[in-house]
Design goal:
- The chain has a five-stranded parallel β-sheet with strand order 2-1-3-4-5.
- Helix 2 runs parallel beside helix 3.
- The protein contains eleven helices and five strands, in the order βαβαβαβαβααααααα.
- The longest helix is centred in the middle third of the chain and has 40 residues, at about 110-150.
- Helices cover about 65% and strands about 10% of the residues.
- By secondary structure, it is an alpha/beta fold.
Length: about 240
């Protein structure tokens, strides 16, 4: 996706030169607007919603740092780059306080512009990936919650995949990465642990326990239970009661 850039610079030659450079290097970014002072910059950012704002510091009417502060107060989120020919510590310190992390010194060369844009695009891609992974983590937590609350119902990976608009294979890998277990093994663990609890603490028959934990077929439940615990459900009840 092309990143949209607004340039705010009071010197026409510098502003146009930088705009031409950015559009020429073709680094996945495009200049969509140019403003010659901070007031124009605020209006342009508000109306055009760019991803990146490159601004000079010293400009008439309102300087670049004041403009950044006002844009932030408006709740507009974009990446700010300070364009300056002044190595002024106070300006840099104020910029840092405002969350500005990138600087471009005048006169900017084509290699300077390429390096800056590559860094900004890479940072944006990393942020997007981090956001996706956070969303996926939330999805897996929701799956775990559903399994733990609804273990007695029919639960399949396909229904979760449809809900989260992911392929079953991809969701399966995410689930395993987050929990350390496959979806089917996690579901089986929850069901078997609940079955053990019901066998020990209730008077339910084995077939009733099986149905309660999501296995309407008692024979299949007995097979899975023995694989999980090493003993049959009946023997498990006898052994555990002996040990009490």
């Amino acid at each position: 996706m092309t990143k949209k850039i607004v340039i705010v610079e009071d010197e026409f030659r510098i502003r146009q030169g930088l705009s031409n450079l950015i559009n020429k290097v073709d680094m996945g970014c495009r200049v969509i607007g140019e403003a010659e002072n901070g007031y124009e910059g605020i209006k342009m950012v508000r109306d055009m919603e760019p991803d990146i704002v490159i601004t000079d510091i010293r400009m008439p009417k309102i300087n670049g740092l004041e403009m950044i502060e006002k844009i932030k107060e408006m709740g507009i989120h974009c990446v700010f780059v300070i364009l300056s020919g002044y190595s002024d510590f106070e300006y840099a310190r104020t910029g840092i306080r405002l969350g500005v992390k990138e600087y471009l010194l005048k006169p900017a060369t084509i290699s300077d512009v390429k390096e800056l844009l590559k860094k900004l695009v890479d940072q944006e891609e990393k942020r997007a990936e981090d956001t996706r992974m956070q969303e996926y983590s939330v999805a897996v937590k929701e799956m775990v919650s559903v399994i733990e609350e609804n273990y007695g119902m029919r639960l399949g990976l396909d229904s979760f995949a449809d809900k989260f608009r992911l392929t079953p294979e991809y969701l399966s890998n995410l689930f395993a990465k987050e929990t350390g277990m496959t979806f089917s093994n996690y579901l089986k663990k929850i069901r078997m642990e609940k079955a053990k609890e019901l066998i020990l603490n209730t008077d339910m028959k084995i077939y009733e326990v099986a149905c309660s934990v999501g296995y309407p077929d008692q024979k299949y439940f007995s097979k899975v239970f023995k694989e999980y615990t090493g003993v049959s459900a009946k023997q498990y009840a006898i052994d555990e009661r002996k040990n009490k």
